[in-house]
Amino acid sequence: MRSNKVDFLINWGDTDMAGIVYYPNYFKWFDISGHQFFRSCSLSPSILEEERDIILPMIDARCTFEKPLYYDDVITIITTAEEINNKTIKLSHEVYRKEERTGYGYELRGWVKKQTEDGIKAVPVPNDVRKILEEEVSTTSQTLKPHFNA
Prior knowledge:
This protein is of the alpha+beta class.
């Protein structure tokens, strides 16, 4: 399955009173990493909405925290298309500080069409998108932009 790597620099504002990364930041980084994942394979959420009337709402998210992160750590998040179901896409995320995994989790996103009369409706993931997501391709967003400061 397709994967993408993105780096983040831990900012002072990402930490709590103990100097450890405040846990909701993982979900913020997962969201950014997910968007970068889709951009890396020419499925940018803004283009999907503009050209196909498709949005990718979050249905479920989870994170397991294994090791603390601190101010000025540089982390790498590897995002992989773990499952492509009929109307959902599950992205897995692994968070690394150098070679050490500090946490992992996932996002489950719907493949949802915007409709004028009914609002929104989950629709099947098309075969061309499924093919792109199932390719054995690894990319890195560092070639596009430097470290993200989210």
